[in-house]
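Data availability (excerpt). The following record was deposited with the supplementary files.
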Amino acid sequence: MRKFLFIAFLFSGLMAKSQQTPQYTQYMLNYFAINPAMAGSKKCIDVKIGYRAQWVGFNGNPRTAFATISSRIKFKKSKSPYSHHGFGAKVEDDHMGLTGTTKMYLAYAYHFQAFRDFKASFGVYGGIQQFKFKVGESNAFQGPDPAIHSVNSKIIWPDFTPGFFIYNEKMYFGLDARQLLLNKIKGYGVEGDNRFKHHFEFLAGANIQVDNRISYLPSMMIKFTPLSVPSFDFNLLLDYDDRFQFGLSYRNTDALAAMFKVNFLEHFTLGYSFDLTTSRMRLGSSNTHEIVIGLYTCNVRGGDNFSCPVFD
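Predicted structure:
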């Protein structure tokens, strides 16, 4: 019965044009996984590995794993000291109930001086995504059901995500659009209503320096899809000496979260967040866990290696 409910939930979500992409509580620690314009924001190689288990204890709960790598490249023939290029790659595996998607992307970004005190970057993710359905574990309410036929269990299509980012040492703004091609899931749902929808994400944040060691990092992310309820994430982190960060996050549609991040051994970071569910899903499960591990070839305590406060 629960498996059937998850199938119904998935297709009703598609038809209602609701959220179809993974969400992260620690978007500040893995923003390149969301916006390709962040590729090359650091002067060194940046590797991230993360895992999110949402609504732990609920049968068929959403689970997301990802890995990213990005770096800055400046060609020798480049004449401008104010511009550079960024390259990267991302792998993301997302599962809920009997369904799942695996995405593999390459990213490119171009950074340039936009205003006197601000830099800007344009980027794009290009790759493929695979939709998977566990046919062997499914039970149709009234069979045979062509929507769960084994021929349609795996689908691969191209996908693109453009992004824009503007930043200086004190503040930043970003915008990206996921699922740009509006790919269609052939053989599933109602014809004409079974396409993936555009998902837009806007980010804004700042670095408020209190003294030489303490600073506040407020941020906000707005996620919206046409004809759906927007999701607002509000974060407030306290940073101590570029060593520790901890704070709270609130999501209007789902959760209140606590999180922390620690920099260690000069080249590593570890972030963890715990979401306390505030929506009706709390009746089945109230816990969500997310962990993000970072590896850098430069010193993680900032300095000249970081040109944007999103990494402080």
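Summary of structural features: DSSP finds one helix and 15 strands in the chain.
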